[in-house]
Amino acid sequence: MGGDLEAQILYAYQTEDANELADLRQMLGTRVKDDGSDMALRYQLGNADYRYGLISKPKDARSAEHAFADCVQQLKVVDAHDEHSVEGLVLESACLAELAAYRKVEGVLLRSGAADRLARAYKLAPRNPRVLLLRAGNDLAHAAPGGAEAADAFAELRLAAELFEQSSATSVDTPGWGHAEAYLALGRQYLQRGDLLAARNWIEKSLLAAPDYRAAQRERAALVQR
């Protein structure tokens, strides 16, 4: 699931190059039409859809919605092919959760589907760092600051970052995404807690993992101003 193709997708996402991601989506879409039985290819098309949706959100809600919907369609096929595909379940959960924000009528059903996929993934692989990253992010987004739920989610995010540190980002057998995102998310959490040293350390780790990651670059620049 990893390899050069995923590296291109992640680089375009991290550099916020919407045009490159659009080209990758088009190319992958053509390849999936030619060989719909290749689940790894469908996964990467879903991954490109998801990344395109994320960087489109601030400026083009319609494009973001369509991209998240396309991601769900690709990952549904992966899930149907192998209901034990942890990585497919994680990515489908992420796309369903994002899509719910745009489709109010279907929102409850979509969020329920996202929770179901993530719960299944966690049951299959409770120490998969991408599973833990998504779980922690979801819980932190809904937890009351300073509460027990927030503390548990923060601990899970730290565990995800630790597990990412122990895993390869360049394996061809598993996806390579999550390292830079987890480190940046942890840095932001430390920043919210007023621990500037820990925040800086984790943001720097994010940039070591992905030197051109613009979101991390912006966070580091903001820290310098403090």
How do the strands and helices of this protein lay out in sequence?
Layout: H1 4-14, H2 18-34, H3 39-56, H4 61-81, H5 86-100, H6 107-124, H7 129-142, H8 148-165, H9 179-192, H10 196-209, H11 214-224
CATH topology of the largest domain: Serine Threonine Protein Phosphatase 5, Tetratricopeptide repeat
Oligomeric state of the chains in view:
single chain
Number of strands: 0
Strand content: under 5%
What's the overall average pLDDT, rounded? 94
Q: CA-to-CA gap between the ends?
A: 40 Å
Order of helices and strands: HHHHHHHHHHH
Mind describing the biggest β-sheet? none
Count of all domains: 2
Q: Write down the CATH class of the largest domain.
A: Mainly Alpha
Low-confidence stretches: none
CATH 2nd-level architecture of the largest domain: Alpha Horseshoe
Number of helices: 11
Measured as a percent range, the helix fraction is over 70%
The gyration radius over C-alpha positions equals 17 Å
Shape: globular
Structural class comes to mainly alpha
Characterization of this structure:
By secondary structure, the protein is mainly alpha-helical. It folds into two domains: 1-125, Serine Threonine Protein Phosphatase 5, Tetratricopeptide repeat; 127-226, Tetratricopeptide repeat domain (Serine Threonine Protein Phosphatase 5, Tetratricopeptide repeat, Alpha Horseshoe), CATH 1.25.40. It is 76% helix and 0% strand. Helix 1 runs parallel beside helix 3 (39-56). The model has no long low-confidence stretch (mean pLDDT 94).
